[in-house]
Specification:
With about 425 residues, the chain is α+β, with helices and mostly antiparallel strands. It has helices spanning about 1-20, 330-355, 360-365, 405-415, and strands spanning about 35-45, 45-50, 65-70, 75-80, 85-90, 95-105, 110, 115-120, 130-140, 145-150, 160-170, 170-175, 180, 185-190, 205-210, 220-225, 235-245, 245-255, 265-270, 280-285, 285-290, 295-305, 320-325. The strands form 6 sheets. Strands 3, 4, 6, 7 and 8 form a 5-stranded antiparallel beta sheet that branches. Strands 9-10-14-13 form a 4-stranded antiparallel beta sheet, with no helix packed on it.
Length: about 425
């Protein structure tokens, strides 16, 4: 225990001796802070830190470096021999940094006081900046990189607010050429069919969105993206699926990308359409072999992404559905039902034809007679006198009207009846 305490005391004593300039050896050496420290916005979300050595600093046989500390928005600390530094960082909430001199004198490192500068936040009313910014890059077949972004209006932004998007990659800055609108006809999305983003390099992508309104000052918003981290991977190509006895074989090619084949992983979606079972298999190669039920029919889809060691992106869309195999039991049932339907239809048509030829329908279903009217019309429209009854064959007497012609004709008729 005493030995451990002694070691700790020695370490603390050595540290104090190495960093303090007030030792007898360093008593005659002074360390002065840098002068003319400035912060300059040189591009979208880019700030230039610049300073000059203190002219009172004696540099004979001494090594001078500078300790730089970024206080906000993202804390960072580093040292450099140069008298300038460039940082890419979102500046809408301001920027703050400090710098000091580091002097290496006779194996002793001494430090000056800090010098600090600040950049104020970008002007604008609170809660008027856009929210929920989301961006996606996509490598096209021609090798260029497209960019698509979407956002929501700030909760404090007036309804007449219009937003405008700019992107910067290295030294190139460009405004959005194609905006998407929300239901209030405000810009809520942006598409660049082609950009200056180099898919073979890793550099920050800066998105800057400002706005305008007649009712309030709209505060700008900036955000940095790694293009590879927001790349939506392309769909795997040339997918081939086949059956070999009771095994399913699948092969495909890697998506259109500058990454090597080893940088990709895949998800294999398999659904048994007969049983309804679904499964997603994770694969590291572009070949797959699986034992299956040969009496079932399957649907297959594949998608891709980068491995974590190759800068993970966004999963691609699923490939188009590929079907393989057949439901044998279902097919036999369908065949039987089809045969039954056809047989029933043919039988019905045949019976109908025979019945028509033999007039069976008229015999089975005779026409229904029209019922007689047992109640005479009390108000006839046309009245016809009732015809006289026919003369009987047994007559006891007949009366004839006067007239010789009528008498003759009726006399003849009486003789015929007699």
């Amino acid at each position: 225990m005493k030995a451990s305490r002694m070691q700790v005391c020695l370490i603390l004593l050595w540290t104090t001796h190495s960093v303090q300039p007030n030792t007898p050896q360093a008593a005659r050496v002074q360390v002065f802070p840098p002068v003319n420290f400035t912060l300059t916005v040189s591009a979208l979300a880019q700030v230039l830190l610049h300073w000059e050595p203190n002219p009172a600093q004696d540099q004979k046989n001494d090594t001078i470096r500078y300790d730089v500390k970024i206080l906000s928005p993202v804390p960072e600390e580093y040292d450099t021999r140069k008298t300038h530094s460039v940082r890419t960082v979102a500046l809408h909430d301001g920027f703050s940094a400090r710098v000091r001199t580091l002097l290496l004198h006779n194996d002793l490192q001494m430090r000056s006081e800090w010098v600090q500068e600040n950049l104020p936040p970008l002007p604008g009313a609170p809660e008027t900046s856009i929210t929920n910014l989301s961006c996606v890059t996509h490598l096209t077949v021609s090798g260029t990189v497209s960019l698509h972004c979407s956002w929501l209006p700030g909760p404090g932004a007036p309804q007449d607010t219009e937003y405008f998007l700019f992107y910067r990659y290295k030294n190139h800055t460009e405004e959005c050429p194609h905006y998407a609108k929300d239901k209030w006809a405000r810009n809520s999305g942006c598409s660049f069919p082609g950009t200056h983003i180099d898919p073979q390099e890793v550099d920050d992508l800066v998105i800057h969105i400002n706005g305008s309104s007649k009712r309030a000052a709209i505060k700008p918003f900036q955000q940095l993206f790694n293009p590879n981290a927001i790349e939506k991977v392309n769909v795997p190509r040339n997918i081939t699926v086949s059956l070999e006895e009771n095994h399913l074989l699948a092969t495909w090619e890697k998506p259109i990308s500058l990454f090597h084949e080893e940088c990709f992983e895949y998800e294999f979606y398999l659904e048994n359409l007969k049983s309804g079972n679904k499964q997603i298999l994770k694969l590291s190669s572009n070949k797959f072999r699986l034992r299956i039920d040969v009496t079932s029919r399957y649907s297959i889809q594949i998608r891709a992404n980068h491995h974590t060691w190759c800068m993970r992106g966004l999963w691609s869309d699923w490939s188009e559905v590929i079907y393989v195999g057949q439901n044998k039991l279902d097919n036999s049932v369908a065949w039987i039902l089809a045969v039954l339907c056809v047989s029933t239809s043919c039988t019905f048509l045949l019976v109908a034809l025979i019945c028509k030829i033999n007039h069976v329908w008229s015999k089975l279903f005779p026409p229904i007679p029209t019922p007689s009217n047992k109640f005479p019309d009390p108000f006839p429209v046309d009245y016809e006198p009732q015809a006289a009854p026919a003369p009987s064959s047994h007559l006891t007497g007949v009366c004839f009207p006067e007239g010789p012609d009528l008498h003759q004709r009726h006399g003849d008729r009486v003789q015929q009846l007699g």
